[in-house]
Design a protein that fits this description.
This protein is mainly beta. It contains no helices and eleven strands. The chain has two domains: 54 residues, no CATH class; 66 residues, YopX-like domains (SH3 type barrels, Roll). Strand 7 and strand 8 form a beta hairpin. It is elongated. The mean pLDDT is 85.
């Protein structure tokens, strides 16, 4: 069984990968003001869960791994920009279809398999790849 992985951008460390935790409540907001965390190392002891290493991440950068890889074997995440035969697409999760898809303005479900594409960046670090600022 494949583990579900996430990534998010931390201000100090850059991209971090692991499990996603959303904290809606905190007993002391001043200690944990962030809402989304990536945990990359944890342990369990008798039913208790302890996060050994966790990093606050910007909510807008959080993306789930698609469990697919590009043509060179890189994991593909939500928000990645993929290129196939000169065309560029963004990987998005579409709730309506309950699946990941390659999209671009005017195109949903490009008829291209992830494994035939190459990751060339992501929309957070390289918005210019899709015509953004």
């Amino acid at each position: 069984m494949n583990a579900i992985k996430f990534r998010g951008k931390n201000k100090q460390r850059g991209w971090v990968y692991g499990s996603l935790v959303e904290s809606k409540h905190s007993y002391r907001q001043s200690l944990r003001p962030h809402r989304y965390w990536i945990i990359d190392r944890a342990m369990s002891n008798g039913g208790w869960f302890t996060a050994c290493r966790s990093f606050p991440v910007d909510e807008s950068t959080v993306g789930q791994c698609t469990l697919a890889q590009d043509e060179v074997g890189m994991d593909i995440y939500e928000g990645d920009v993929l290129e196939h035969r000169g065309e560029r697409y963004v990987v998005r999760y579409l709730d309506k279809y309950a699946r990941f898809a390659l999209t671009k303005p005017g195109v949903v479900f490009a008829g291209v398999a992830f494994c035939c594409c190459r990751v060339i960046g992501n929309i957070h670090d390289n918005p210019e790849l899709m015509g953004g600022e």
